[in-house]
Task: structure prediction
Amino acid sequence: MWSNFPKERFSLPGMFSARKLNNPRLFPLYIGFIVFFVIFALHHSTYIKGSFMVESSESSVMVIVVTPTYKRYTRVPDMIRMANTLAHVKNLYWIVIEDGNKTSPAVEDILEGTGLQYTYMAHPTAKGFPKKGWYQRTMALRFIRSNTDQILGTSKDGVVYFGDDDNSYDIRLFTDYIRNVKTLGIWAVGYCGGSPVEAPNVTDGKVASFNVQWSPKRVFAVDMAGFAVNLKVVLNSDAEFGTSCKRGTGAPETCLLEDMGLDRTDIEPFGWEGKEGQRKIYAWHTKTKPPYIKGKLETFGYQVEIE
Amino acid sequence: MWSNFPKERFSLPGMFSARKLNNPRLFPLYIGFIVFFVIFALHHSTYIKGSFMVESSESSVMVIVVTPTYKRYTRVPDMIRMANTLAHVKNLYWIVIEDGNKTSPAVEDILEGTGLQYTYMAHPTAKGFPKKGWYQRTMALRFIRSNTDQILGTSKDGVVYFGDDDNSYDIRLFTDYIRNVKTLGIWAVGYCGGSPVEAPNVTDGKVASFNVQWSPKRVFAVDMAGFAVNLKVVLNSDAEFGTSCKRGTGAPETCLLEDMGLDRTDIEPFGWEGKEGQRKIYAWHTKTKPPYIKGKLETFGYQVEIE
Result:
């Protein structure tokens, strides 16, 4: 086969000639090179299975997911499902912040099981902050700013996303949307704010308004699950989730993004093009029902978090 | 390197000799074999990432998951989370049965995205059956019995599990428990039947009773999420989910298992040993809250299922 190749193809001046290639004593070297190349190529391919074959050139960008959490009946199953989702995503750093005095062994086990890089820390809500993860997300922003190199590792770029543990996420939210955010990415969220879907209103690729029912006049009328910001935006500001957001009629998203120095012209909308016939929703604002528990709280030695 | 190997090592009578190996005209053939072997070995390794490196010798057993489903607000996000979970499991066949006249394109998309083998079919609940997936699970049992070879593929053995789309599952439920069931496997389920956990009561490896609050006298006092049966048990009976289960005080699990000819001595309990200090729960009976939707049901062209 190879010996029938036109010899000219291999005669690159100053490199190697077909004559050398035909030297049988060098064949073990060629075999070594080929085996090494095949191992290298397969190792660096992102193929997992089926359409989870999603990561390509952008996968060197670190996806940084910030998840506030707290002890409740459904926290462990919620975190298990979120872990199963995030574990599909390459190059992801998960920051989980417990609203409590100490971290939970059950959550630690789940995080350990993902094989992802993560930091799990406890910060009980400080006085004046609402009990909605505001303080925990602020602690995460400070952690990102003071541990940037550790989080990025060999990645040169990062994107920060606030993903709560009870929402539902399509893998493509992380691989197709979040990892491609250069400044501020915004997309639709299902079952949110009293609507079947909240979405940016896009004309000629630009967002001038938001298709939401609740408080549509906010500069950024978007749910926490509906945006991500490039790490550079986080590092170039000291914006935090304060004790209140008066500009957001109670919702902190617009205050954070405005305090980061962003305006509507910075928005990169994702998923509005309606390719394949219908626009698809990759983030769903779901809540898990508290279970019906009656009588004694016997756990029979099983690891289960009781409220 | 190779040329320094003792020649005797390669002198297998009737096969090939070191003399032939030294023939440079055969080297392209050897290169081909080596590249093929490396690709084959890597392709058949079960490594995905981190601790999802879970599958070993038992992975040739087909895990057959049966999921009845129906159109509702939270069905798509529920199915997305379940798909993200099952997509981690090798050698899994997913049978999804719509309680309706036709299948849903949104669900079809989710199934397609997993890369798993699956069958998605529509069977509206027949007269007399309760609206709780009984008829759909019966249709799945008939499908398994009449399409066994197609489902098994190259696998020699299978296990059938009834997994609803709103529950939460640890990956190890499928890899460590279900795939190892020889007859009837039973394990703990979290947040079930009014208890933090329902579990088999195990003494000396045997189950004589069940730690449940609701109807503990049933022969099999177990939730749908808490057991799996070997495919042989399914094929050796014509048991189905009938229009009622009088022996189960309304719960169909015990009738199905009794009709399959099983009794308590057949139970293989999983996860009760309390290794690592605490017994762990790998299946959670969760429900997703219906979202708060008010006013008009505008979807802005996004793919969203409306009740």
Q: What stands out?
A: Chain B has one domain: 58-284.
